[in-house]
Every structure is written in structure tokens, then in C-alpha cells.
Amino acid sequence: MQKIPTVFVRDFDNNPAHVLPEVTPGCEWVLTGEGQATRKYDGTCVMLDEAGKWWARREVKPRKPVPPNYAVLSVDTETGKTIGWEPIDQSSFAKFHAEALQAAGPSERTAGTFELIGPKVNGNPEEVDVHRLVEHAAAQHVSVPELTFDGIRSTVLALAAVDGCEGIVWHHTDGRMAKIKARDFPKA
Prior knowledge:
Layout: E1 8-11, E2 18-23, H1 28-31, E3 35-40, E4 44-48, E5 54-60, E6 71-75, E7 82-87, H2 94-104, E8 112-117, E9 132-135, H3 149-163, E10 167-172, E11 177-181
């Protein structure tokens, strides 16, 4: 899974980097209504590969060594971070991932990506009582009535105000994705 592009261009001249009312090249399809909008869960991304092995997404800062058995996907040209996967058993989230699998009980899982959420993951912004896995392919659909900068900002901030929703991920039928987070917009 490659890093998902942000719908709008980031303004890296400011800290934190917020978005500008300019579409990131390659994400124009979002504003033409070609994708399905889904809730962006706030946890950590994990993947079950075709061989049945679990991986945790990890970003490595510039000039830091990558962990053993790390599968590099790409390097972010803006931040210099290396994006990739590490085996879940060597991840700092291994224990919570095991708890999520145990809580789910025996089940047939298909290969794909999931969001690990729970009390010990990123401060539990999803406010759940137990660790669990949310399949990205089955994420909750959301409605974005106006596909403009202001309309998307309004929808994302409204969702965040209701229950802390991190943001929205759009899924195109051809596999492309794009995202936006509530924190991408400056506080008014």
C-alpha cells in the first residue's frame, strides 16, 4: 500500500503544513465525483498479505536505519521519510494487534489492509473499549454533498466535531485513493 495522496496541495512553508485550496495533481477525480468517500479511521495501518503474514506500516525518518526485514515502498520527497512495512511481530503494536485478533475470534480474513484501533493505539481517538481491526475495504461510507475545497473542509470538520473522525478517504473504482484529514485545515 503506497502512501495515499492528500486531495489538496500541502503548504510546507507553514508548520504545521496545512492544505491550500489547490487540488493535488492526480486527485482531480475526487472533485468530479468519481470516487466513493469513506471514513478515515485514526489508528495504525496493518496488512495481511497473500501468504497470511501480518505487517505494520511504518515511516522511518531521514538518516535513521530501517528495521530488520523492512519492506520499503517509497520515500516521501517532501519529508524524506521512508514508507514501508515491518513484520507485525517486531512492531510496537504487536501486542495490541494480537489482542484484536483474539477479540475477533477465529475468522477467515482476506488479504488486505486494516486499521488497528483501540485503547493503546495513538491515544484512542476512535474511543473504543477494545483493540480491533477495521477492514479498509469495508470502511463506513460518508456523504460529501459539495465537492469543492470549502465543501470538503466543511464536511470533514463537521464529521470530526461529531465523533472525532480523522477524515475522509476516497476510493476510485480503478484502485486510486485520496485522503483529507480534519487537521489538514487550519483552525478558524
